[in-house]
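Exercise: predict the fold of this chain.
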Amino acid sequence: MNKKLNALLGFFIVALCISCANKVAPQGGDRDVKSPVLLSAVPAENSVNFNATEVVLTFDEYVQLKEVTKQVIISPLLNPAPEFLVRKKSVIIKFNSPLLTATTYTVSFGNAITDNNEGNALAGYRYIFSTGDYLDSLMISGTIADAATGKSTEGVLALLYRSPVADSVPLKKTPDYFAKSDATGKFTISNVAAGAYALYSLEDKNGNFILDATDERAGFYSDLVNATDSLSKELVVARQPLSRQSVKSSIIEEAGKLTTVFSRPTENPKPVFADGYSGKFIIQKNVSKDTIVLYTTPEMSDSAKVIWYDGEVIIDTVGYRKQRGSATLNKLYFSGFPFPQKGNPLPGGSNPSVTFTIPTAAIDTTKILVTHDSIAIHPGIAFTDSLQTKMVFSDEWKSGAYTIQILPGALTDVHGRSHDTISWSFNAAGDKGRGSITYKLSGTINENFILQLVNEKDEIVRQHDGKSDYTGIFSEVEPGIYRIRIVFDRNGNKLWDGGDVLRRITPEKIYYHTEIITVRANWDVETEVKCLRLLSFDDV
């Protein structure tokens, strides 16, 4: 009997447990997508004669702050910056520095304020107050773009400085007002006091609101702007040279090779040896003109002292020491790998090449052997630079396998040294799989200019010197999407220059031909670039 009762009792217990287990709470309803709602602000929003030391913003739910340093902007700047705290449903701003008198402040939170559960942001909330009798309500807006590509830039600062200002103001002073550009490149500086201002753009890499880093891009608006002017202001950013020329590094890389890196490009570098050296030397500049290599004969191997001039202006007196671990070389070496590298095909429209670490003084072409499918050929051999460091082989490069051998004694450098055998192989596809672009320039451009073919990444694929009323061809172009652009080469150096904020020099203008050019294998595309309206830089 007891067994039956126990079994029956066990059955009811199991049934009860199952029944309880099945009683689950209903699944939560729709996901919360509502942003926090501001219930109160103490002091009130848009307060005047503000003299509080903190602000308390209270919302209808628990909140949190995200990416405060990235999202929150206070204009004008405060130094030190306020503290931002969260207490349950409130955000507290604690001021740690005195406020300017008769000034309107804007605290823009961006997307920093979110609810505590779903992370819904209160987008674009701004708390505004004035330490004076009224709120300044004027604004200045515009766009910021990359000077080289014309594409919108996000997160770049638009800086306002009260006039009058010195040209060097971006190097020395934080702005009176500022704003950041959004994803479309647009910016709006709100609650600005009446008056005239200088307007600059700055890609502030180190967060100090001053142009002081070599990798920071900047730009300026040519005229003073007035806060009552409602017209949109167009700004650009480009890499800038530093304010003062200086030497960043100097070293003897190897015997007879002195390398100097400057803070900005040098136009007319002149070395004067200050240690009694009276030998010969050769100067080599890189493309951007900020790195100079001196090749000395006889070789300077351990130390040197040089006074550097740019034209007639002294830059600095520089000492050189031998690089640790470097050795005196008794051979001529090539730099990196020959082009194309082993296993890579020769790209269409290009020529194989080899670059040496030291300028060469003599060449014996009988010791340079080139074969095409094991048959000897005789391509053109030439140097692309006056120092004879880069040797290029020119030919039709028909489809097949190629080998280039440069035997010992083929080249001799300025120190009288030769090299070991240099040999590499590669394949060429001939004209198979590539196309060409025939272009015609119609009209007249009354300036120096460069015609460039760029790909979808705005990388320069080919470049021709510009000529008005001219027909040319970009041959052996890989299939892809391209555009033609015209660079107005103001200084005639065959390069695009991004200007100089401190010297009030604007970037060289770039005009993009509107047509998108699609290159297909074994096809020739024709396009006309109309230049009738491009009469000067200001017309672009």
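Check your answer against the key: Confidence is low (pLDDT under 50) at residues 11-26, 532-540.
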